[in-house]
Design goal:
Blueprint: H1 2-13, H2 15-22, H3 28-49, H4 63-85, H5 88-95, H6 98-109, H7 116-134, H8 144-167, H9 173-188, H10 203-226, H11 232-238, H12 241-254, H13 260-279
Length: about 300
């Protein structure tokens, strides 16, 4: 129960990312690159200061970590493309189908059984997210390309959770996060050529540091560590807490209106999260002790 609660709390903290992004006038690709570069540098520096430099070495079969970086870069790229091609509402609705893919695919690639609790929680969580996403009255219509981008972002997120959970079975969390962020940053670097301003200034520097060091390096390390203890299916449902937290914080910090549908949708998502926290057990066998045979 405590591990599920920790994931829910971590997802709630990610709601602050929207507040940070609102205070930075940089292109999305620039902000993502800065986030990845600062996170990789922070983890590397921490490892060296703690005299754990060996954690920065590529392990045996390094292609697994480099592939994680490619999947992460693809996920963020597809998510932003979905927003660009359609709307935030459509992008959220499509990307947050990821828990459905996790519920269906995780038992095939991980030592997990299909979770009745996770499936049941998807109903109020999905309804709540749809209510929040559509509260602004944005048009739901979207082109086939936008739908493809959104579903691609959802599938890549599900693949990222499953692949990370498998890799972290034998590789230290710091090694996983360092190389995932570093390789994703390298892949996104060429897109900076088509961006506008790439150097933050003034308060943007503090926001960028907060995003990269706290909400990517530290948060990512904790997230990957928690994947050892929480089922992938539970992680998918608990991720719905993030947009609820973002909406609540935007109201509290930025003064953005909090309409009744958002509150109602948020309560549905919270109810789903509580169900998972209370009823979904942690991994019955620590993943380190239960390697997944190749399929």
């Amino acid at each position: 129960m405590r591990w599920n609660a920790a994931v829910a709390g971590l997802a709630a903290s990610w709601g602050l990312i929207a507040i940070i992004v609102a205070g930075v006038d940089l292109d999305a690709v620039v902000l993502v690159f800065l986030r990845l570069a600062l996170a990789a540098a922070s983890i590397g520096l921490a490892a060296l200061l703690l005299r754990r430099g060996t954690l920065l070495r590529l392990p045996t079969a390094p292609h697994r970590l480099l592939l994680l970086g490619a999947v992460l870069a693809a996920h963020w790229f597809l998510f932003f493309e979905a927003i660009k091609l359609a709307s935030v509402a459509v992008a959220l609705l499509l990307v947050y189908t990821a828990p459905l893919f996790l519920a269906l695919l995780a038992p095939w690639f991980l030592p997990e059984r299909h979770s009745r609790v996770a499936f049941a929680a998807l109903v109020p969580a999905g309804a709540g997210l749809a209510t929040i996403a559509l509260a602004g009255g944005e048009e739901v219509g979207a082109s086939p390309l936008a739908v493809a981008a959104g579903l691609g972002a959802a599938l890549s997120y599900a693949g990222l959770v499953i692949a990370t959970k498998r890799v972290v079975a034998t590789v230290h969390s710091a090694t996983v996060t360092f190389w995932t962020y570093a390789s994703a940053g390298v892949l996104l670097a060429p897109f900076l050529l088509a961006a506008g301003r790439v150097v933050p200034r003034g308060l943007e520097i503090a926001y960028a540091l907060l995003l990269g060091v706290v909400f990517t390096a530290l948060s990512g390390f904790l997230y990957v560590s928690l994947l050892r203890r929480v089922t992938a299916q539970a992680v998918g449902v608990l991720a719905y807490v993030e947009p609820v937290s973002a909406a609540a914080l935007a109201w509290a910090v930025l003064g953005q209106p909090l309409e009744a549908p958002v509150v109602a949708g948020g309560l549905l998502v919270v109810a789903a999260g509580v169900l998972v926290i209370v009823r979904e057990p942690a991994d019955p066998v620590p993943i380190e002790a239960a390697p997944v045979p190749p399929r």
